[in-house]
Specification:
The chain is an alpha/beta fold and about 270 residues long. Helix content is about 40%, strand content about 15%. The chain is built from eight helices and nine strands. Helix 1 packs across helix 8 and helix 4 packs parallel to helix 5. The radius of gyration is 18 Å and the shape is globular. The protein starts with 10 loop residues before the first strand and ends in a 16-residue tail after the last strand. It binds nicotinamide-adenine-dinucleotide (NAD). The site of nicotinamide-adenine-dinucleotide (NAD) has 29 residues, from helix 1 and helix 6. Nicotinamide-adenine-dinucleotide (NAD) binds next to helix 1 and helix 6.
Length: about 270
């Protein structure tokens, strides 16, 4: 019997795959038998990552906010690989700061990359996935798409919007055999030490945020990029054939609710 979690022969495009979570997802897809196209604006880093990942990986330049870039990448990838079976909309940026002081151009750029980007990507891959007889799309949202936080208004808006895009596209693309889901990672993880985390003092944040469920097994538990990648590859695989239009938090319980001191069971 074929292992339903296998990605043998699957051709997967990962946006923002040059580094961070995208790179770890790409590596895991390859472990499971798939082929990966890393698509990113960082050409040198992306080329090196693809080289490191070996023959099953290749790199394409892509600015996710450009419809023309998406069209070019789709042409080249379908020529080279004969089609595509899955897309991971992972590329995103984060700007932190008070809402009142937010530069409109920076907010626009963030929304163009984090929300318009996945929309354009979904639009561009739809005919290709249909030609392949179906496929899967995973949108990387965030716990910032399940709740709000001071200083991240534009990011929160983009990630909540991405969950809306996930639901709408799951409904529209279901008849073509395409499943669309969102993964909502928690934060604070040593292998996503990206510009994301450089922008704030994580230890202080974890200590002051009123969320004890983040402590799993009595230990502070940061979510690991590998935990997130496992969920992504599972959703890409046939094992997840019953899942579409849904959100999957990988946040060690962060968004489960409040574990209140002073109440029975604390
Ligand atoms: N790091 C975290 O703690 C965390 C937590 C929750 C969710 N996330 C989400 O995980 C995803 C990956 O985050 P990460 O931490 O690996 O970030 P990262 O900054 O390390 O990687 C993002 C990648 O996206 C690329 N990128 C940026 N703009 C692009 C564009 N216009 N077109 C194509 N590529 C572009 C960058 O070059 C980079 O390679 C993001 O969607 C992010 O919102 C991250």
């Amino acid at each position: 019997m074929t292992d339903p979690t296998s990605l043998e022969g699957r051709r997967v495009l990962v946006t923002g795959g040059a580094q961070g979570l995208g790179e770890i997802i790409a590596a895991r897809v390859i472990d499971l038998g798939g082929t990966v196209v890393i698509a990113d604006v960082q050409d040198d880093v992306g080329e090196l990552t693809a080289e490191r990942l070996g023959a099953a990986a290749s790199f394409e330049h892509l600015d996710v906010s450009s419809a023309d870039d998406w069209a070019g990448v789709m042409d080249r990838v379908t020529d080279r690989l004969g089609g595509l079976d899955a897309l991971v909309n992972n590329a995103a940026i984060l700007h932190m700061g008070p809402l009142e002081e937010m530069d409109p151009e920076r907010a626009r750029l963030l929304l163009e990359i984090n929300l318009l980007g996945p929309l354009l990507g979904t639009r561009a891959v739809t005919p290709v996935l249909r030609d392949a007889g179906g496929g899967a799309i995973v949108n990387i949202a965030s716990i910032g798409g399940l709740e709000g936080m001071n200083s991240t208004a534009a990011y929160n808006a983009s990630k909540w919007g991405l969950r809306g895009l996930t639901r709408a596209s799951a409904l529209e693309l279901g008849r073509d055999g395409v499943r669309v889901n969102a993964v909502c990672p928690g934060m604070g993880n040593p292998d996503m030490p990206t510009p994301f985390l450089e922008q704030f003092d994580l230890d202080r944040y974890l200590l002051t945020a009123p969320r004890l469920p983040f402590f799993v097994g009595g230990q502070p538990r940061n979510v690991d990029a590998h935990d997130v990648a496992e969920m992504v590859v599972w959703l890409l695989s046939d094992a997840a054939r019953g899942c579409t239009g849904a959100d999957f938090a990988v946040d060690a319980g962060w968004t489960a609710g409040t574990f209140a001191e002073g109440l029975p069971g604390f």
